[in-house]
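Hello,

Following up on my earlier ticket. Below are the two sequence lines again, exactly as submitted.
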Amino acid sequence: MSDSVAARLAHDVGKYVARIAHNVPPDGPIPSGLVPLLAKDLYEHPGGGRPSARFAELAPDDPALRPVREALAAIDALEADVRAADDAACRRACALALEVEGALRAYAAEAR
Amino acid sequence: MPRLLVIEDGDEYEEFARLFLAERYEDIVAAHSAVEALAAADGCDALLIDLRFERAEPEDLLGDADEVAERLFAGDRDRATRWLKEQQGTLILGALRDAGHAQPAVFVHDFPARRVKNLQRLYGKVGAVPSFDAAAIARTLESLA
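Thanks for your patience. The regenerated structure is below:
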């Protein structure tokens, strides 16, 4: 695993997928104005496509990354409910996004 | 009116700053290259910088790919261009410092501690926050002010 690829995973996938997730209010419903931006982070990668697709493009076949792959698949499965502003789905997707970011940061740190 | 200059290759930082940092920075301006950053830096109170400019066109990157290729990559221009993209935020910060802009600067990047110390040695008031955590970014900018 090159540290360059691990750094790209942490930057291209981890950092952006969790951008809004880091800042949703801890209590109460997620403000409706944040939902489209949360959906953008979760389903529209800045470089085009989905974060899960970007991950698949970059990630090596490493068992250590299986939880990230699974979390991104779970995020994808929540898309309809997230876009419909279902609060429980948005909260679950935020938690998964933070898991993805944390795991990819740890992976990048280990590769350095 | 505190003004924040956001330097990035897309629009995600600007969007984030307008949503979550607007209470502290009433004016938020964005730059997408060194040229734009140098043009916008006067009057800004702080800098929020992306490190990696993956989406930038090679002609918009600061740095001489041929020189970097010879110096670091045995003449490999593709690797040099990739390196310029991966380090573009620090290169732009260096250009801003050379032009006399000493504002506090924060990167949203998970730098190793030794790298942050080196950036501070080179460029003064520099901090790093590993994620888009608005509270942590605001605290870091305030601590550097």
